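Design request, tokens follow.
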């Protein structure tokens, strides 16, 4: 059962919640914070603290691939390589 608070008034608001998460290998606590601006909720914090570990995992952090390669450049190159590979084997 989640715990925390949610408050809103029309188009604005804020939320801070915690809830348990359990998977096949571990369990832990998820912490989230969100704000509502102009009627739209946005997550500002989403972290997982795995039981038995000290560090928290930031679930909103960009992936390593997104940081190292600009999104459009990386996706275009990957799609081009897949298309070339497919074209050669299909002919």
């Amino acid at each position: 059962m989640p715990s925390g608070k949610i408050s809103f008034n029309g188009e604005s608001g804020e939320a801070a919640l915690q809830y348990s998460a359990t998977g096949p290998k571990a369990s832990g606590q998820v912490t989230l914070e969100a704000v509502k601006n102009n009627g739209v909720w946005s997550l500002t914090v989403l972290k997982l603290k795995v039981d038995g570990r000290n560090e928290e995992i930031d679930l909103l952090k960009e992936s390593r691939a997104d940081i190292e390669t600009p999104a459009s450049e990386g996706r275009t190159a990957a799609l081009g390589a897949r298309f070339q590979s497919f074209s050669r084997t299909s002919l």
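Comment from the thread starter after seeing the answer: thanks! Helices lie at 64-68, 71-90.
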